[in-house]
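Structure in, sequence out. Go:
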């Protein structure tokens, strides 16, 4: 179970747009991420590579302060809003809920819930 301080440190890292660093620092080596009902990606190295590639497709990522955080034992739910600017200068507002399962001070499983129609 993450401490309140560890969770605040994670959120602050994401809010600073240090997404790859957040995965490196806060996810277990065997962690998984899942987009809605897609198959999960497994392994921290895979997660880091996927995040780096996603960010490389953008010219700017602006993470807004966490809208809401629910913390109950090993379970954390965060509501995020991201302003993502693509290479042509168009900015997209993207909102999601993420459910995380922690073991100790590391995230072992994360699932994102969002409306894919946000992508146009």
């Amino acid at each position: 179970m993450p401490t309140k301080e560890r969770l605040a440190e994670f959120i602050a890292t994401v809010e600073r747009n240090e997404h790859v660093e957040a995965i490196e620092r806060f996810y277990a080596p065997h962690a998984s991420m899942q987009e809605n009902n897609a198959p999960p990606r497994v392994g921290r190295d895979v997660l880091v590579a996927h995040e780096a590639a996603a960010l490389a497709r953008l010219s700017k990522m602006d993470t807004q302060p966490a809208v809401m955080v629910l913390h109950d034992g090993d379970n954390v739910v965060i509501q995020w809003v991201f302003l993502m600017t693509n290479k042509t200068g168009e900015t997209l507002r993207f909102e999601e809920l993420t459910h995380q399962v922690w073991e100790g001070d590391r995230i072992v499983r994360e699932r994102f819930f969002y409306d894919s129609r946000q992508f146009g």
